[in-house]
Predict the 3D structure of the following.
Amino acid sequence: MSANPVSERTFVVDEPQGRAGLRQAIPAEWTKFWSVRSTAWSLFALIVATIGLGVLSTHALHSQPGGVPDPMRRIFVGFNLGQFAIGVLGVLFISAEYGTGQIRSTLSVMPRRPVVVAAKAIVMGAVGLVVGEVLAFVTFFVGDSMLAGTPSHVAFGSPGVLRVLIDSGLYLALLGLIGLGIATVLHNSAGSIATLAGAVLILTLLVSAMPKAIIDAVSRYLPANIGSTVFALRPPGRFQDVPVFSASVGLAVLALYAIILLGAGCYLMIRRDT
Amino acid sequence: MIEARGLSKRFGDVLAVDDLTFDVQAGLVTGFLGPNGSGKSTTMAMIMGLDHPNAGTVTIGGRRYHDLRWPLREVGGLLEARAIHPGRSARTHLASLAIYNDIPVSRVDFVLDQVGLSDVASKRVGKFSLGMGQRLGIAAALLGDPAVILLDEPVNGLDPEGIRWMRTLCKSLAAEGRTVFISSHLMAEMALTADQLVVIGKGRLIAEMSVADFVARSSTKSFLARVGSPDAFVGAVRAIGGDVVTNADGTMTVTGVDAVGIGDAALAARVAIYELSAQASLEDAFMELTGATVEYRGVA
């Protein structure tokens, strides 16, 4: 004998209009972003790197009697390390989901992969931009106040200063998105962090040891070299006879990297099993 | 209502799910039964759109999972491997899922209470025992008050009280008219919980029938008997070709003859029968059906 199925009941009486999309995904990812400890640790590392190193570096300038040619570079020296901290934050935002299996919960409530990736990118981009801009201004004012009364002191109103501050915040936001993009493609935390370190730190060193023709062709595309131009009033001396992008073109190149990585990640998430 | 049609999934050289076609009806608990490695979890993952079939389709209420408008309000799923970030509290984990589908956050505390996790709602999930993790997964499945509930090995890690709770929950969810689909490799548990069965082995459909029919189909049927004079009973049963084993508690297990044969033989031998019950088990039926398809077999 077979049990009799009772008549099929519908449980959708209170179902809202439309369908689940970005409007729900953004606040949900926002909640997830702030509810894991790695977020607080990465942001703490970012603050220590940017403001802390800036203070140490400008403090050392006190004993420099003649002043330095580009003190902005010294104030923002910590951003070279900070870019890695925010990149790691971007990586972990999605790689931790793959590492723990959480991604299966996420994709079961939002099966459309691009919506998940877009929501994460919007949250990461917004947090990166706000944190980046706040850190840029705080780092500048704290670092510059250390230089008060020395020949290295930079007036807030002097040409290019506001550009450095705004672009530096933007740079950190883009590095966060590049980290997110790398992990959206690779899924694995260790592999993604290694790739990020490779792209930001190791590749830069490697290329600088290459023949001049390669340096000329590749240097300007490397994130850290774009950063060197962004975090200073003038491109660094070592780029005197090497072609570099202006800060704004450099930032556009980084944005393109982020878009390509996130797009490729979406494509792979749609294709692959989870 | 879940409909799988010709569902197939290949991992490299291994055909994990092979041309699977079955229906899961509303208002019943349907057990999804098969030995370890038979393709149950892969099938569950395909229903929820996590794994992509190489061939065939599976739909829920006529739609693919990917096309559900509010997935959590329509389907609640518990996946076999724990799918939760260990760093969040139970409440935050559920809240993030609720927000994703516009489910009122008040539902979070409701389902936490329903699964008995209210006291540990603020605790980090990483500190949960296996059983608590299962309960949290079930809470997530219930969050959207869905019409379809999929639970992959839900009693794994639950203590006896938890298993009993799970059984009652599944039955009451089905009684409310929901579609309840639970996978298990434990036949005895399914015998107590399920109304209907989908049995697979090595990715292939072996049987799709009611639990009662499944048991009846089993040929290794045995009877438990309590009788007045055991020695005479043993002789009488053996005389008609049956076999009898005396159990430690004095009862007898009879195989090889049916109930009519046992009754007639006892009457002829003037042996009083105090109790005679069929002992056919789902376990036996299952072993018999899947015997040829077990993926990993221990050496006895």
